[in-house]
Amino acid sequence: MLKNKYGYFDAKKREFVITDPRTPRPWFNYMWNDRYAGLISHTGGGFSYLDSPRDNRLTRMRYNSLPWDRPGRYVMVKDTESGEYWSLSWAPTLNVNYDLYECHHGMGYTRIITEYKGIRGEITYFVPRDETGEIWKISLTNLSERPRNLEIYAFTELLMGNALNDLINQPNDKHFTDIHFDKESQSLVATRRYWVLNKKVSVIQPNIDWKYILQFASTLDVSGFDASLDTFIGKWRSEANPLSVETGEMHHTEITAGDPVAALQSKVKLEPGNTLDFSILMKVSEKESAKLSDINSWKSQTFIEGKLSALQQYWQDYFSVLQVETPDEKVNTMLNTWNQYQAAVTFDMARNSGYYHGGLLFGTGMRDQFQDILGMVMVEPERVRKRLLNALQFQFNDGSTLHNFFKLAGTGERTRHSDTPLWIPFGLIKYFSETGDASIFEETVPYHDEGEGTVCEHMVRAMDYAISETTERGLPRIMNGDWNDTLDHIGPKGKGETIWGAFFLGYILKEAVSFFDFRKETVQVKKYSQAYKTLTKTINDLAWTGTWYLRAFRDNGQPVGTPEDDQGQIFLNAQTWSVISGMATPERGNTALKSCLDQLETPYGMQICRPAYHRIDDTVGLISRCVPGKKENGAVFNHASAWFVLAALMNGQIEDAYRIYQKMLPVNSGTDIDRYETEPYVFSEYVTSPEHPTQGQASHSWLTGSAVWMLYIGYGYLLGIRPVPGGLLIDPRIPADWDKVNITRKFRGKTLHIRIHNPDRVNMGVKSMTVNGQSHDSQVLDPEKYDGRELDVEVRLSDE
């Protein structure tokens, strides 16, 4: 069993079970569907939103609050005989020492179990797959030998609307809140009369109605309610000791202004050994079609159990697309469950709604949209297709794009990051490789400024724009930055050049050549082949130092990332992508990766650059203002470290790749969990490197591109089951001590049962392959050429 001092992995139930609530930081989970989403911590913290975490936040969460992780979704139980009360989720009554505490973070739900003073509480938070709302399913069991008279208080602090406006203009914004108690549905009905959708702060505001109502209800009889936060909590108090809970008196407040809360009280008697099952419901409806009585259908135990069962079935089906069995339990745990799950979260949340990503400023990133499909496309290709088509609307007709956008407001920023347009062909080709769906390229999508074009034209314009944005020497301009946003002062005058960006452009050109060659579009093949060849020569003529590749050239022509530099001497991405792009010669690729291992390897993975910047260098940018050893300034930035794993696998350095891959797994990185701090079941954005006293400390968990890349690299390159335009490429690159690997992979309508045999204990080299017992003479398998829905694939490795 994989475990640490705070909990353990339950592989069978696909849960991480926290057994001590005093974790180093709040450890979160997600509950969500296509529209409604919520973060849920192991103490009941987090927030909910509909469609947009900035523009349509439903409940509050205060960043940097003390105590941490406030407010949240709370259910308190009070013993009327003793007057003592406690929470079913530890917070906010942190002084309680439970006889039992367990938080089960599962797939789309979180269940918290407590035992205290003879009362066992179990609360399961989840969002149904097909409803705009959430359910807190609760059971209370009397473990004592006497009847218990209990008061139950369920409450959450509401926001309803623009979270950024709430943060900076809350004293005025709260004047538009309207909450009343509806007797027929026995629910608090909350709305607001004014909705701010724009990003900027201005006296001129749009006159828009918030078009929703939010209902908060219980399946128990309601004995009291409050809608005023001040009244329910009491002045000079907090969520830990609400006045109404302490006194047992609710004030039945209905408000038309003020800070909103949804708080309900119920009173029950629980006989010894008996269990009481009930639920708290929060439902959002559009005003025009809302029927308040509809929430009564949610109160049925059959409805609630059915929705929870459907959620569990969804995830069972989801994981059936890819399952692996390797000799490494940690790899199995991540690839079979948590890596896939995190990738699913990242697909829907982007970098936009998390404990570290408030969703208030930057919206959805273009590069994130086209990268994050890597985790979802094999399971829900139709959703990916719609997402791609929607994102293309934020591309201009010259091929450039917005860097980020807000889905509800339809606005965004045109930052001129040099790499952003190139993620369009990246995502489209990956989609096509998985699905074989060529029809998407014939769809017509409008440009963000004027005109429209087919998806294929959008893709071509993105590449042509990137090719056109090169300097006289033929290298891509870095403009306001590339993938590393903090290299933002290298080329403000338009003359600075990005070497990583050149390798990334080369990779896209190579992928495009393969794509157009498969489609037999010879004109495009010739065009992009020549561009690739020319760019390859230019990079190797200008950017090789003898031991590694430069990272960039400044506006004044001075290089960044030379062996002579005393800070920012070597950058990981330029070396890895020289191999990934195929643009480095074998000798230079070997030397570049060796330099990475010599200079950048740490106990947690690969540093993004070294030495970190200890002096401000405004000719490089914000990177030099980051704390040395953290974030982009010399941290183990997992996104970049994953690309080293990819490059090493492609270069045949399998044992090096696997060693770094292992170091990066959260369960390994978090061996010293009190230092690591973040969730040990998902990747964090970065881990502090040895260049800072807090080395080994992680930050920005969940919403990181590391998740989809580690998943894609894990199954696509390490296990070597990789989609390409012609089918599934079988090319395992595994540790030599793995004697066998079993994989189940659903692909293009077929289920493939793949068994990899490694009797000679080699790293790579497919000696033979059979499909349903018949010899298959290619490493690319097109399942559509075989009858039947299930295929048995036997693969034998050998160094012969």
Return the CATH topology of the domain at 25-291 and 298-317: Beta-galactosidase, Chain A, domain 5
Name given to the CATH architecture of the domain at 25-291 and 298-317: Distorted Sandwich
Name the assembly state: single chain
- Average pLDDT number: 95
- What does the main sheet amount to? 11 strands, antiparallel
Give the radius of gyration.
28 Å
* Low-confidence region ranges: none
Helix content: 25-40%
Number of helices: 20
How many β-strands, per DSSP? Answer: 44
Strand order of the largest sheet: 1-2-3-10-11-12-13-20-17-16-15
The chain-level structural class is alpha+beta
Strand content: 25-35%
Shape descriptor reads globular
CATH class of the domain at 25-291 and 298-317: Mainly Beta
CATH homologous superfamily assignment of the domain at 25-291 and 298-317: Glycoside hydrolase, family 65, N-terminal domain
- In whole angstroms, the N-to-C terminal distance is 38 Å
Structural description of this entry:
- It is built from 20 helices and 44 strands.
- The protein is an alpha+beta fold and about 800 residues long.
- Among the domains are: about 25-290 and about 300-315, Glycoside hydrolase, family 65, N-terminal domain (Beta-galactosidase, Chain A, domain 5); about 360-470, no CATH class; about 720-795, Maltose phosphorylase, domain 3 (Sandwich).
- The strands form 11 sheets. The chain has an 11-stranded antiparallel sheet with strand order 1-2-3-10-11-12-13-20-17-16-15, covered by helices on one side. Strands 7, 8, 9, 14, 18 and 19 form a 6-stranded antiparallel sheet that branches. Strands 21-39-40-44-41-42 form a 6-stranded mixed sheet.
- β12 and β13 form a beta hairpin.
- The model has no long low-confidence stretch (mean pLDDT about 95).
